[in-house]
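Exercise: predict the structure of this protein bound to adenosine monophosphate.
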Amino acid sequence: MTPDLHAHSTASDGLLTPAALVARAASRGVDVIALTDHDDTLGLAAAGQAAAAAGIRFVPGVEISATWERHTVHVVGLHVDATDAVLTQGLMQVRAGRETRARHIGQALARVGIGGAYEGARELAGGDHLISRAHFARYLVAQGKASSTRDVFRSYLVPGKPGHVPHAWAPLVDAIAWIHAAGGQAVLAHPGRYAVTPTGMQRLLATFRDAGGDALEVISGTHTRTECETFAGHARSFGLLASTGSDFHGPDESPHDLGSLPALMPGTTPVWARW
Ligand code: AMP
Ligand code: MN
Ligand code: MN
Ligand code: MN
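Solution:
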């Protein structure tokens, strides 16, 4: 089995349409693909159809933006029922907050002489899709304000930089509860990306597990080999299942393409053991 249980499409801040993403996954040897767009399930229907056409298994997912002790953390939901009212309502609230934050980011950038950033990001997001910082980053690159999205984050969008706007996302326990209401498994995404101390990580994992969280994303396209091993150990000691996902956003933007992840470590119990 070659699963990839974390990937983005144009329904959030990915660069490929849901159908193109799934087709790319299939062509690269992925046989179980989850679409996990930020805070929206808009792309799931088209992705599911594309997976059926390509003859691979599809897992409907979502990646919910959450707040835990002032940190932004992401919770992936796997096998969610996108029609569930609790999940739908929760995601709608998160997207409303996102829209307000996007306008504030536009105002903050205007104060340092970069005008039109909200409108530019809105245009890149397309239609009435949600706006992520990735859209701002792409717009600023296109405007020549930086040479890569990475540089835009470093210079403008992270705490301490002029375009950073602090934001309260869904409380972590709520994000887990919405996923469970929709019949899904809650996975703490890319734990290696959180700026927490080792004791902070222990507290985060304990809180996540005690709130009913199911799994830890042990293998991530954003993790080093050492981080994968560290989090395999944490999954074991906290009794969490282990998940794997590239967090693919697009061919030119993501360091790890679909179908190129290392295997899950022996000794961990994969999320799919419960499917
Ligand atoms: P948001 O949820 O709107 O705060 O945006 C977070 C998204 O921005 C992530 O899902 C990535 O797609 C992107 N992102 C975050 N940090 C970076 C970075 N350092 N370089 C490039 N993209 C990033
Ligand atoms: Mn993203
Ligand atoms: Mn994420
Ligand atoms: Mn992601």
